[in-house]
Known about the structure:
- Residues 9-334 form the FAD-binding domain.
- This protein has 403 residues and is an alpha+beta fold.
- The protein is built from twelve helices and 20 strands.
- The strands form three sheets. Strands 5, 6, 12, 13, 14, 15, 16, 17 and 20 form a nine-stranded mixed beta sheet that branches. Strands 1, 2, 8, 9, 10, 11, 18 and 19 form an eight-stranded mixed beta sheet that branches.
- A hairpin with a 5-residue loop joins strand 5 and strand 6.
- Helix 1 (18-26) packs parallel to helix 5 (121-133), helix 1 packs parallel to helix 9 and helix 9 runs antiparallel to helix 10.
- The chain starts with 6 loop residues before the first strand and ends in a 5-residue tail after the last helix.
- It binds flavin-adenine dinucleotide.
- Flavin-adenine dinucleotide binds at residues 14-20, 41-44, 55-57, 61, 63-64, 144-145, 173-175, 177-178, 197, 199, 235, 278, 297-299, 305, 308-312, 314, 400.
- Residues 14-20, 41-44, 55-57, 61, 63-64, 144-145, 173-175, 177-178, 197, 199, 235, 278, 297-299, 305, 308-312, 314, 400 line the site of flavin-adenine dinucleotide.
Amino acid sequence: xxxxxxxxxxxxxxxxxxxxxxxxxxxxxxxxxxxxxxxxxxxxxxxxxxxxxxxxxxxxxxxxxxxxxxxxxxxxxxxxxxxxxxxxxxxxxxxxxxxxxxxxxxxxxxxxxxxxxxxxxxxxxxxxxxxxxxxxxxxxxxxxxxxxxxxxxxxxxxxxxxxxxxxxxxxxxxxxxxxxxxxxxxxxxxxxxxxxxxxxxxxxxxxxxxxxxxxxxxxxxxxxxxxxxxxxxxxxxxxxxxxxxxxxxxxxxxxxxxxxxxxxxxxxxxxxxxxxxxxxxxxxxxxxxxxxxxxxxxxxxxxxxxxxxxxxxxxxxxxxxxxxxxxxxxxxxxxxxxxxxxxxxxxxxxxxxxxxxxxxxxxxxxxxxxxxxxxxxxxxxxxxxxxxxxxxxxxxxxxxxxx
Length: 403
Ligand SMILES: Cc1cc2nc3c(=O)[nH]c(=O)nc-3n(C[C@H](O)[C@H](O)[C@H](O)COP(=O)(O)OP(=O)(O)OC[C@H]3O[C@@H](n4cnc5c(N)ncnc54)[C@H](O)[C@@H]3O)c2cc1C
């Protein structure tokens, strides 16, 4: 069967998950002002775009969203809808199990209503995809990219739905799931943490008052993030293999073990929803840009969720890419040129490295089980409580709420 001639598009986004969908929404003003043609290719079937159901990116997780990210969504005209199911983080409480040190941060100390927000991923997906449905995009779903071939002015993409695209700029936002990065010869550094994040929603016996908890235990960090009502989003890190039993055990036993590991500071754990596990590896792509190609989100960097930074970092990448594209359009530069993409990479480099170093360092610092280091950490947390600016910075960064 002969295939139709390739359809030219300015931008092809591979992956319509959190990052790809955010990028498409962020491009809306450029689509309108400059008549950009954009195609989004998403592998997971979504049915009706306005009724996004379960899929790999918009799953049972909830994300800590920094104020800066909320502002970015506000600029895209999406925050009011996202806020309908968001809970504000008004306090952050960081502690280490078995040690006295605690550091706290209150929004009112900083003269703010909230330090950040927690939004269910499935709801973010719903809001993003409703907006996508209203944009003049070519939406290929479910479809994957079967072949990607570099050409003089971009890439030629062959899709599983039979179409072919010739894209001036291709953005890889597939979460690193498609194997395309490797097929393009983009190498990645991978450092497994030998840990698995078990996530679930839990109900607590008393109002959380907007408190987010980060508790470091011998097994790994436990984060509890506020959700509307008395629900909290749990991210419980386990040594690889230890999560299997906890995924399988009855709710009562699970809640009792969680209570034992976490203590009483959030009240009693009363109920737990479905549990899911995510193996954790630090993955960083060695290249983020090539002529006609940009790599974004988890495809560029998959981080440990301890500091809730992955998506916040990626969203800054989305807005910096769109800013570089806007500048190119205004200056008559091509979207996929190395001048345009080099400008984007220059904006991203320092931020990306500092966030990766910070969240990786946090996991490793609290992962070392040595009594002296443990005392030093406890003293550090107590000291931080006294040292205002440092404490604010650590607590905000630990929750992914500061750039
Ligand atoms: C347990 C956990 C908790 C987290 N908590 C936070 C947090 O609180 N705050 C925060 O900022 N970050 C958090 N993160 C990180 C955040 O979830 C990721 O940064 C984010 O999901 C990355 O989105 P993405 O779109 O790049 O990739 P993904 O979410 O993996 O989405 C990729 C998309 O591409 C599609 N796709 C895959 N292959 C193909 C293909 N061949 N063709 C077309 N489409 C394809 C997939 O179907 C999917 O829709 C957490 C991560 C984990 C694991």
